[in-house]
């Protein structure tokens, strides 16, 4: 298979790339800064191709994906993402704009370019990395929660629109995964798991063509309860002292 992964130099993207490369698939990855990508991995895998691309810039992404697989693209992960880092009690709008650009526009651009290749073949699979944060407005992370909520709804809609064209769509909603992004967090991260374990679970869900995959299971239970409860009760819980965070 030809597989392209945005945000593939670290964390979940890198772990997924290694899984697919070990199976003998051809993998393309992109990131805004390739200098962070381990040189030993670039040298180890002959079926790996790397591109320095900002996913918020559609034409740059178009050139990279079309250079990698102009006619046959089987699977693409819109995995590039931006977190808010350390939480703040007041909105940080410069950060919020970048979060929306990468987390939402980046997914739109990735799917847009991929579909130009997939639709004529009536075959392919679009996957986006969302988050459990997309199911609720988390304190101190409004832009991040909003961006991941947008990804969840985009994928749900596209899964309905594109299935008749032979295209599968999946939204992946992880809990806390040990990546460079989560290392910026200044709050507790329950049920934290390694990127390697997360990649195995994600790959398995994609192979099963799941439209939505939330993990780990304990986090899924917590998120489902918080999502379904009356919003007044949710706000009361979130305002408790135990959920406070430091002022930045």
Largest sheet: 7 strands, parallel
Name the helicity range: 40-55%
Structural class determined from secondary elements = alpha/beta
CATH architecture: 3-Layer(aba) Sandwich
By DSSP, the count of extended strands is 9
Tell me the number of structural domains: 1
Q: Report, as a whole number of angstroms, the end-to-end distance.
A: 45 Å
Q: What is the CATH H-level superfamily?
A: NAD(P)-binding Rossmann-like Domain
Strand arrangement, major sheet: 3-2-1-4-5-6-9
CATH fold type: Rossmann fold
**Shape designation:** globular
Low-confidence stretches: 242-248
CA radius of gyration: 18 Å
How many individual helices? 8
Briefly, what CATH class? Alpha Beta
How would you characterize this protein structure?
The chain has one domain (about 1-245): Rossmann fold, CATH 3.40.50.720. It is built from eight helices and nine strands. By secondary structure, it is of the alpha/beta class. The longest helix is centred in the middle third of the chain and has 29 residues, at about 95-120. The termini are far apart. The strands form two sheets. A seven-stranded parallel beta sheet has the order 3-2-1-4-5-6-9, sandwiched between helices. The chain has helices at about 10-20, 40-45, 60-70, 95-120, 140-160, 195-205, 215-230, 230-240; strands spanning about 1-5, 25-30, 50, 75-80, 125-130, 165-175, 175-180, 195, 210-215.
């Amino acid at each position: 298979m030809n597989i392209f992964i945005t945000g593939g130099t670290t964390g979940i993207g890198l772990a997924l790339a290694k899984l697919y490369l070990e199976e003998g698939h051809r993998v393309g990855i992109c990131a805004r800064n390739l200098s962070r990508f381990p040189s030993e991995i670039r040298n180890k895998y002959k079926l790996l191709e790397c591109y320095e691309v900002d996913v918020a810039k559609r034409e740059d992404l178009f050139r990279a994906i079309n250079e990698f697989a102009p006619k046959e693209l089987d699977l693409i992960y819109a995995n590039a993402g931006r977190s808010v880092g350390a939480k703040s009690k007041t909105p940080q709008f410069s950060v919020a704009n970048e979060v929306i650009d990468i987390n939402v526009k980046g997914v739109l651009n990735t799917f847009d370019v991929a579909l130009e290749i997939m639709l004529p073949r009536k075959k392919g699979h679009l996957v986006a990395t969302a988050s459990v944060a997309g199911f609720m407005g988390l304190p101190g992370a409004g832009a991040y929660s909003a961006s991941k909520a947008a990804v969840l709804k985009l994928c749900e809609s596209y899964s309905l629109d594109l299935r008749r064209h032979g295209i599968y769509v999946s939204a992946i909603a992880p809990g806390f995964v040990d990546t460079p992004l989560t290392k910026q967090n200044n709050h507790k991260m329950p049920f934290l798991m390694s990127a390697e374990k997360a990649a195995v679970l994600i790959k398995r869900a994609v192979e099963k063509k799941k439209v939505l995959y939330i993990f780990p299971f304990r986090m899924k239970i917590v998120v489902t309860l918080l999502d379904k409860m009356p919003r007044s009760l949710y706000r009361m819980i979130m305002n408790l002292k135990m959920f406070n965070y430091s002022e930045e």
